[in-house]
Design a protein that fits this description.
Number of helices: 15
Number of strands: 0
Shape: globular
Largest sheet: none
Strand content: under 5%
Length: about 300
């Protein structure tokens, strides 16, 4: 694959996260009937919603994805501390949107991220949210060796989410991303990777669960959308019109769709609307660069 084609896929992945996030942010926590009554079928990035977003403004899904990317870029051989520094730097900006599990873990951090995640898991009684899955894509974009992708996917997840279902979902997601970066076909990859997993049922039926923040439910809807949609726009629009945790489902699905279709196939009306597009452009170029150093 040429460097130009690789950049197109990596940039597509980063923008895909942001676009799915920004579009879905409008309908987060709404029900399908509420979305239909207010928007019909949402197709444009208009902002608003529960967080009163500016059109093209992103939420924690994109910002934490960039934290993971920046941490890896700072120290690719051992990015844990650097990712943690980026997390806390972002947290200190007092973001509008931050998940309860992540907020709780941030407040528990002293010497060890893993200990903080465990304490949060015990105190909250669970930690099976989608907050580590939503941000894990840069791992697959940065590393060229599958063993590194698997190791860092698990590590970045375990920093805030003790539940192994989260960590397993991150590894599976980045396995799919890894294969898409090699130029494989979306539907074939998903069908092959889901055999024998907790997500295999979606190969033959619509998810029989809410589109909520439980990592298994989130990922089932993401995979279903990716199997059903015919282009990038349909992926992010389907996610947005689900409601509930629509920004996160949009970000996760949009990341894989962006890799598969590439930046050049993303409608300009979406890409140009993102308020932090200069930062996304820079991150994409730097991710290609770090891959050069690791190859």
């Amino acid at each position: 694959m040429s460097r130009t084609d690789l950049l197109d896929k990596i940039k597509g992945g980063i923008y895909g996260v942001a676009i799915g996030d920004a579009l879905g942010g409008t309908t987060e926590f709404m029900s399908v009937p509420e979305i239909k009554a207010r928007y019909g079928y949402l197709t444009e990035i208009i902002g608003g919603g529960v967080w009163r977003l500016e059109p093209g403004e992103v939420t924690d899904d994109t910002m934490m994805t960039l934290c993971v990317a920046e941490g890896i870029l700072a120290k690719p051989d051992d990015p844990l501390a650097a990712i943690g520094e980026q997390f806390m730097k972002w947290y200190q900006t007092r973001p509008k949107d931050i998940g309860n599990i992540i907020r709780h873990t941030f407040e528990n951090v002293e010497d060890s991220w893993f200990e903080a995640a465990y304490v949060t898991h015990i105190e909250m009684g669970q930690s099976a949210g989608n907050g580590s899955l939503m941000r894990c894509l840069p791992v697959a974009l940065a590393y060229t060796d599958w063993k590194d992708i698997e190791r860092v996917s698990h590590m970045q997840s375990k920093m805030t989410h003790y539940d192994e279902r989260c960590n397993e979902a991150c590894i599976l997601y980045n396995r799919i991303a890894y294969r898409l970066l090699q130029g494989e076909a979306m539907k074939a990859v998903i069908q092959q990777e889901l055999i024998g997993t907790a997500y295999e049922s979606i190969l033959t039926s619509v998810p029989n669960c809410a589109a909520n923040g439980y990592v298994v439910h989130t990922f089932r809807w993401v995979l279903h959308i990716l199997l059903e949609a015919s282009d990038f726009s349909e992926v992010v629009q389907r996610a947005a019109n689900l409601g509930d945790d629509s920004d996160t489902i949009g970000a996760i699905a949009g990341g894989l769709a962006g890799i598969y279709y590439g930046y050049e196939e993303i409608p300009a009306k979406y890409a140009e609307s993102i308020l932090i597009k200069k930062r996304l452009d820079e991150i994409a170029v730097r991710l290609v660069g770090v891959r050069d150093g690791l190859a």
